Amino acid sequence: MYAQMIKSEATQDDPEKLAAFQARIDAGEKIEPKDWMPEGYRKTLIRQIGQHAHSEIVGQLPEGNWITRAPTLERKAILLAKVQDEAGHGLYLYCAAETLGVTRDELTEMLLDGRMKYSSIFNYPTLNWADMGAVGWLVDGAAIMNQVPLQRTSFGPYSRAMIRICKEESFHQRQGYDVIRKMAEGTPEQKKMAQDALNRLWYPSLMMFGPSDKDSVHSAQSMAWKIKMNTNDELRQKFVDQTVPQAEYLGLTVPDPDLKWNEERGHYDYTDPDWSEFFDVIQGNGPCNTDRLAARNKAWDDGKWVRDGMLAHARKKAARKHAAE
Amino acid sequence: MTRDEAFTQFLLRMGDNTLILGHRVSEWCGHAPVLEEDIALANTALDLIGQTQMWLGLAAELQGEGKSADDLAFLRDAWDFRNVLLVEVPNHDFGRTLMRQFLFDAWHLIQLGRLVKSSDPRVAAIAEKASKEAAYHLERSADTVVSLGDGTEESHRRMQEALDYLWPYAGEMFQSDEVDAEMVKAGIAPDPAALREEYDALVSRVLDEATLTIPESRFAHKGGRTGAMHTEHLGHLLTQMQWLQRAYPGAKW
Amino acid sequence: MKNEWPLWEIFIRGQHGMSHRHVGSLHAPDAEMAIKNARDVYTRRNEGVSIWVVEANNISASSPSDKGPLYEPSESKVYRHPTFFDIPEEVGAM
């Protein structure tokens, strides 16, 4: 998921206020920025929305990697529009976080110096054009599993951002499937690219949902607050069940020899990803962590003179206008 | 040179300009100084790619060899490209990118304004759509050039450097040759040289507001719009852009 | 000096004849750039015909504790809502 392993903050507030707050959430009311909220709710949300926003922005990089190599003008336009949407989604989410009393610059700095994380998936490389299909199909597919229920989250600005994001994102997964379908039905080389993409991205996609959270107290608190709507395992199972037939339709093989339909459960049995790899990636040792953060830092550092210059001009203009009045 | 040959050359010039510039601008995606600029640059690139599809689509139709806009974009070699050198120079920093955009947008909008009245209805229709986009591009790039020119000391210095570097590439947009003469004769497109005065007025007004100084030399690099001599940069751009189509001929994407 | 661009609230009228509606926020150095950024960020899918921008710190908001006094009086004025009135079917559309 775009927000993984969010630790919910303990909260030490007046029990009466807490109970009233919980009652509002249980009644399906939305919490708005100026409403009273437990400090733990606020801090957990900043961390979660911030991580979600960072994931959108860092998520521009693996797909941006192919914009200049897109094989047709139409594919180039579609991919560019999609990566642009991700920038937009990051922007909406940063704005939602800002209503909680943190600025975008503060959040950005925490991303850049490693205090805040982004989704593990974006630390994997995109190595052939079919990856543009697989990212849309699998990665966006996994993200949607989480984002659709989050439209009903308890925090108003987050919910509204998710509604807008889901509306815009509806084309992302479809375009991904369309890209990989063309490849799977194409030349032997294209088919090889498609299978290669699925081989590399299958387990990292399953990791997106985070480790099993059945014993996690944080998860329980976040679910009570309605800022986490489903358990990681629920969503992962749903993703597998949805994706396996789609892979079969393409004639591609999911890289899991033990994958099989379980009639009794009504679900696919599948092999869990290698969680030690997941923790390596989270610790900064994924294949692309260093490059991704370096790219974001470079954009931020190189852009400083532009941000400062435009602001300086706006201030000069305002001062001149003021003097003329 | 027949009228149709000249017409095709003209369409390639229009389409290659937007193709190569759109490509350059798209390189910023994910790397811009601030999210709002990232999104705005992507919009510009998307408009330019869309215009490319129309110009090169019409060029391919006119050639009558059963080719598509994609064939022209992805399967020609550097010497067949007809874009001006200005659009192929590397992005360098945000300042040079926006200055290049401004110098191009100013010409583009004036040119499209003339093409709206083209004797060829297909050209007029493309120009009609493209000129609305170009008007916004110009508004945005001109404002940014003014902001950064009249911003901090550093932003001023960088914008002046960008202008000094790019100015010798601006003149090529106004060089006329026999292709243009044919187009003028057919009433399809204006004489490039005839746009210079309006361009100079517009550009000096904006650069003046930006507190930037236009270099005195009127020297102009050339060779892009005729294809005689591109910069070394174009070849590198094409190796990326065309790689998949070249490596896997005939594949459908 | 803090150099973050100010935050702007964006209001867009999606169709002629409708009211402007709050669609979200963004950062911009000044109002002119905020309008341009709003066009690029919030009307990528032809959502708008008119844009208003207001610097976020210029917005005064009611505080949640006012909720009762501000809104409850209108709840009792049900006659303000058209469905309050029964109109005989024979009268036709109204």
Describe the structure.
The complex is a heterotrimer of chains A (325), B (253) and C (94). With 325 residues, chain A is an all-alpha fold. Chain A has 12 helices and 2 strands. Chain A has a two-stranded antiparallel sheet with strand order 1-2. In chain A, helix 6 (130-150) packs antiparallel against helix 7 (156-184) and helix 6 runs antiparallel to helix 10 (232-250). The N and C termini of chain A lie far apart (53 Å). Chain B has a single domain, classed as Ferritin, CATH 1.20.1260. Chain B is built from 10 helices and no strands. In chain B, helix 2 packs antiparallel against helix 5 (121-149) and helix 4 (94-115) packs antiparallel against helix 5. Chain B is globular. The mean pLDDT of chain B is 97. Chain C is of the alpha+beta class and 94 residues long. Chain C is 22% helix and 21% strand. Chain C contains 2 helices and 3 strands, in the order E-E-H-E-H. Chain C has a 3-stranded antiparallel sheet with strand order 2-1-3, with helices on one face. Chains A and B meet through helix 3, helix 4, helix 7 and helix 12 of A and helix 1, helix 2, helix 3, helix 5 and helix 6 of B.
The CATH C-level name of chain B is Mainly Alpha
> Helical proportion of chain C?
10-25%
Low-confidence stretches of chain B: none
Task: Give the end-to-end Cα distance of chain B, rounded to a whole number of Å.
Answer: 36 Å
Q: What is the CATH superfamily label of chain B?
A: Ferritin, core subunit, four-helix bundle
Average pLDDT rating of chain C: 80
How many helices of chain C? The count is 2
Biggest beta sheet attributes of chain C: 3 strands, antiparallel
User: Strand fraction band of chain C?
Assistant: 15-25%
Number of strands of chain B: 0
> Which geometry of chain C do the CA atoms define?
elongated
Spatial strand order of the main sheet of chain C = 2-1-3
Compute the gyration radius of chain C: what is it?
20 Å
CATH architectural arrangement of chain B: Up-down Bundle
Number of helices of chain B: 10
What proportion strand of chain B?
Answer: under 5%
SS-derived structural category of chain C: alpha+beta
Question: The biggest beta sheet of chain B, please?
Answer: none
Distance between the termini of chain C: 60 Å
Indicate the CATH topology of chain B: Ferritin
Largest interface: A-B, 50 and 52 residues
InterPro entries (chain A): Aromatic_CoA_ox/epox, Ferritin-like, Ferritin-like_SF, PaaA, PaaA_PaaC
Pfam families (chain A): PaaA_PaaC (PF05138)
Protein name (chain A): 1,2-phenylacetyl-CoA epoxidase subunit A
Keywords (chain A): Oxidoreductase
